[in-house]
Amino acid sequence: MIQAETQIRFLLNGAEIALSDVRPDETLLDWLRLSRALRGTKEGCAEGDCGACTVLVGRPTPDGLVYEGVNACIRFLGSLHGCHVVTVEHLKGEGGALHPVQQAMVDFHGSQCGFCTPGFVMSLYAMWMQDPDPSEAAVEKALQGNLCRCTGYEPIVKAARAISSYGTLEEDFLAAERTAVAERLAAIRAGGRVEVGTGKDRFVLPASVDDLAAVLEAEPMATIVAGSTDVGLWVTKFMRDIAPVVFIGHLGDLKTISERDGVLTIGAGVSYTDAFETLSRRIPAMGPLIDRIGGAQVRNMGTIGGNIANGSPIGDMPPPLIALGASVTLRKGGARRTIALEDFFVAYGKQDRQPGEFVEAVHVPVPSAETQFAAWKVTKRRDEDITAVLGAFTLSIEDGVVRAARIAYGGMAATPKRAKGVEAALVGQPWTLETVEAAMDVYPSDFQPISDMRASAEYRMLAARNLLKRFFLVHGGAEMPVTVSRERAA
Amino acid sequence: MTDPTKRKHGDASDGALHLGSPLARVDGDRKVRGEAAYALDAAPAGLAHGVLVRGTIGAGTVLSVDAASARQSPGVLMVFTPFDTPVLGAPDSFLDGTPGEGPFHVFPASILHWGQAVAAVIAETRQQAETAAALLRIDYAPGDVVPSILSKDAGPGVPVGAVDIDRGDAEAALAGSVFRVEATYETPREYHVPIEPHGAVAWWEGDRLTVREPSQWIDAMARTYAGWFGIPFENVRLISHFVGGGFGSKVTAMTHGAVAALAARELGRPVKVAVTRAQNFTAHGGRAATRQTLRLGADADGRLKAIVQDGESETSVFVPFVEQLNAATSVMYDVPNLRSRQRLVHVNTVTPAHMRAPGKHPSAFGLESAIDELAHLAGIDPVELRLRNEAGFNPQTGQPWSSRRLREALVEGARRFGWKDRPAAPRSMRDADGAFLGWGVAAGLFPALDHFGEAGLRVDADGSIEVLSAGIDMGTGTYTILAQAAADALGVLPGDVTVRLGDSELPSGPLAGNSLLAGVMTGLVHKAAAAMRETIIGLALTEQGSPFRGSELNTLDITRGRIHPTLDEGRAVPIADLLKAIGRDRIERIEDNFPAGTSAQERHRIMTTVAGLRPPDGGVSSVASWCAHFVEVKVDEDFGTVRVRRVVSGFDCGRLYNPHLAASQFRGGIVMGIGQALLEGGRVDPRDGRIVNDNLGDYLIPTNADIPDIEVFSVGEPDFRAAPMGGKPVGEIGIVGVAPAICNAVFHATGQRIRRLPLDIAALLSTN
Fold it and tell me: Whose CA, among A30, A476, B247, B701, lies 20 to 30 Å from B621?
């Protein structure tokens, strides 16, 4: 039996914090505003949509201390053990002057009503630390998770691009503290299991993956929390009781990505942000897709494992991973089993996961050079919108004939689902527009989508079919435009 | 350059020093530091937390509330239900002259719309209050629900009457027109969605109530609180230093404020009630859904002969709120014959409210879309068609315009946009990837209103200079432009001036609505600062101890905060030093623009009800701002997706008090217009009237990536009929005409007319 620590310890701005009394569902935002009177961080929506509550969280990684913007409104306080929380109040420039990010925002009129401003400042600061000379595209990406209703954004983008003219990263106040902070965090993290609270109302940070397995065996109905981009809303929006909570986001063993025999193995705790480099390099079509999941704050917190484990029919990772032929390893105690990802999704809201069992890793075959892969997400709003239809395609074409096809969709059924009828209509057929158009007629046998707020059933069906056509036009080898638009008969 | 000795201080006609210059927002520093304190940042000692509980039926009655377990829940201090909440007093209506609604039942048992507040729980912490709220067992007797204007049983509505227009013989003129178009246009419920949600923190000291609440109209809200709690107006202190966006949603006192103040009184400690994001979709109304059928007739040259308009707008079953559909229709163009009718369709919704450019936006969506349809039918360029129909005077009232530079906005906008290269036929422009491109244009207007108010100016011997007003700044820039206005008139630098706003203890300010506050307050501050200047110079000439005592009249000036002989800046003395020299700690001036002899009672009525709204220029001329938007869209017909790629917009808003801040208002308005065209619309559950997308993940507002390059420019000239300092309305006009410009561009791209907002991507899907 591991002796657990009983305090959540982390750094807040310049102070070291040790908390014995932490409610399992207490959010960082509530704690900052109510317990610490740090009210520069604002609550605009309490569900990770608006970014007004953005703060930085610094965490040790194998590559050193990394600071990322996160939504404090859906980040659980207990999850910050061993991290450095930086709020807008901590920002400073030389001699009490404004920080370069703040000064740029003032000079370029980046604030209007000002309520979203601290969140923008923190998102820009996170961006600037990674990329002191950002392109407009980089700024756009950095600001995906921050909503402004007043300025029209342009002044903020201009400010973002000018930050480096107000100061350098080397002179930044956090840079000076970096080594000391890293050492303090390492010391905090050196301990074993952390457990606060009593009875059911506990928040547990296991010491290791093996410890996680042990904790879950003892507490099979506990809520497993990785990024809390979903579970956070269970609390703030649906008022659900999630205790006891077992957090896994700090476990280095679950944060690894490795490649062996052409298969990427991604630990269940790997965030979208951490997966981005490998996935976009090895499977280039995944890059633009990941870029359109939530905003930077959500990608920094949310994990690929979590996106699978919660089984949403409109999760953005399962369709491409199913199309790629991914499998998932589940673990209970010492026992592991690996199943095809598509078999994990049993029905709406129901996955093939037993009490006490957890997703440990997902295994993603890298498409071979002869294999074509694409994944496209269709939404009404380009950024930070929930999928209407997401289609993913892996096709092998040899000598002009389709040898193999795996096609999967999100938003078309109660679970992420393969288009097996469409696949069958393609395999063995010549890779021509005629074949594609014939396969497009098969969709109704694979899918009977529903109408909801995001799209009608008809729209979903048409868009799903058109995605296959787009795939053909992009990957058909012919000199054709990327989009399918054609002149209509007059 | 103007000879400095001849400069009339603060008067825009001579090129003032500061007003009109692009000074950086003076409150920007506090905002980027997170130091700007919004209402819910207030945390007085002993604060308790309240949550509102929403009803879950669309209509009917609350039969009972079982609060036993909620009251036993840890930390709970108080539970309010329809059956045990004290009835509050009866404020008179802020719609002056109409009777009030009687005693205020905070939680009536009668349910008129989904989400109506039915209870509140006050506890030591917000979490405890939420936990207890979930334990309430509420029993309803559901009634029949009419969910929305789109419902089959909504009926035809009732005529409004008051906004009807009959000009000439429109039907006959239409029948005789060469070109006729007819179409129906629809706009959905839209929501203000300020990033700062509503809420209030209230506490009592004896019979004095203090409320921290985001407010666009301090004095009117304070009056309501006074009426509710039966205390004198002076006993209510409403504080709203910073407002995190309002857009019309924060004008009146509401249930959450009543609960905070009531609970604070009952408990004898401060109480905060925060309205959740979801509750912000039902605790107050957004813009009413509308539908209008327009018939336009024109002669062979495209000159409008007739407009016939039949419209409906949605309202609640209990208040006849009118979203006026002919606000633009009646005055945009020179139309000799016009007939306009509007009906109100009463449904089970919270009463709609004014939202940025009320009436003007849906009116312009219909009119400016129909004008484009007419231009296409007549084979006339849509810019040219608009120029041919320019109205030389207000066609509805016959008044001359104080200024109307719409022609300049259209012509210059077309030039900057490159409009001359536009092929007339739809579906004739493509991007490199094959997707269709389209160019569209639309115009807009915003009629001005004037208001009354006061402005205070205070100069201290410690060197501080303060502008004082209960008027507010919701990001519009009031803090900044009032510092600029005061600096010019007094002869100091804007950085020397501290502006204090948003507190009912300060001199009475007008509402921040109808885009009128900037015009009214710059004029009043100018007046107060000029009076202060005369006062200071007068003291310098006459007071014992002044180094300038005995100088001749008209020989002193104030420059950069120093008083000096007009032609000898070398003998300058700082104002503070003068005050010390003559033994004065402080000088205060309050100026107003009330008619002479206005009684205190009448002032109160003017400042706390709509009685203070009046036409500018004494009603002699007709005053409005004007704009023209040019838009490029890209349409992907495979998925129906539309991206706005480029916007060029010209504005005639008279003189801009601060071009940077004004441009920011314009851009922000255009962005909201892009949202209206492409994204925004409340979705109503057809069973019970619930707003389904009551959150920021589902009620989509534009993100940064939805926003293209937006070029805004001003063609305005100072218009002193519009306002003392020469400006016209700025804050709302930006959105007017954006949605039709986008939809016209979509037509140009695809040949598909978009007549219902927000644009349905399925409608643009290519099926071949």
Answer: B247
CB within 8 Å of B221: residues ≥ 6 apart: B211, B213, B215, B238, B251, B252, B253, B257
User: Is position A150 within any domain?
Assistant: yes
pLDDT at A195 over 90: yes
A39 with B41: Cβ contact below 8 A: yes
CB contact (8 A) between residue A488 and residue B38: no
Spatial distance between the Cα atoms of A65 and A175, rounded to a whole number of angstroms: 10
What CA–CA distances, in Å, run from B220 to A472, B216, B516, B583, B741?
63, 9, 16, 39, 37
Same domain, A160 and A308: no
| CATH number (domain holding residue A302) | 3.30.465.10
Q: Give B189 to chain A, closest Cα distance, Å.
A: 15
pLDDT of B655 strictly over 50: yes
Same domain, A402 and A322: no
Q: Annotated catalytic, B466?
A: no
Asked whether B332 and B361 are in contact (CB, 8 A), the reply is no
Please tell me the total count of domains within chain A.
3
Q: Is residue A239 part of a domain?
A: no
Task: Find the distance separating the first CA and the last CA of chain A, reported in whole Å.
Answer: 78
3-class secondary-structure state, position B246: coil
Cα–Cα nearest to A210, from A355, A334, A357: A334
Instruction: State the residue for tokens 């740090």.
Output: A38
Is residue A40 domain-shared with residue A126, that is, in the same domain? yes
CA distances from B655 to A429, B28, B85, B404, B723 (A): 69, 23, 51, 13, 10
Give A176's pLDDT tier (boundaries 50, 70, 90).
confident
Range of the domain at A14: 8-192
**Statement to judge: residues A361 and A381 lie in one domain:** no
Closest residue in B to A456 (Cα–Cα): B762
Say how far apart CA B375 and CA B368 lie, in whole Å: 10
Q: What is the pLDDT of residues A85-127, one digit of tens each?
A: 999 999 998 888 999 999 999 999 999 999 999 999 999 999 9
Of the partner residues B33, B475, B696, the one whose CB lies closest to the CB of residue A150:
B475
Which one of B196, B213, B632, B732 is the catalytic residue? B732
Question: Taking CA atoms, what residue in A is nearest to B661?
Answer: A109
Domains of chain B: 40-144+194-276 (3.30.365.10), 165-172+286-448+618-765 (3.30.365.10), 451-613 (3.30.365.10)
pLDDT value of position A490: 26
Angstrom CA distances, B594 to B468, B516, B599, B604, B619, stand at 17, 16, 9, 11, 16
Q: Give the domain-ending residue among A303, A337, A365.
A: A365
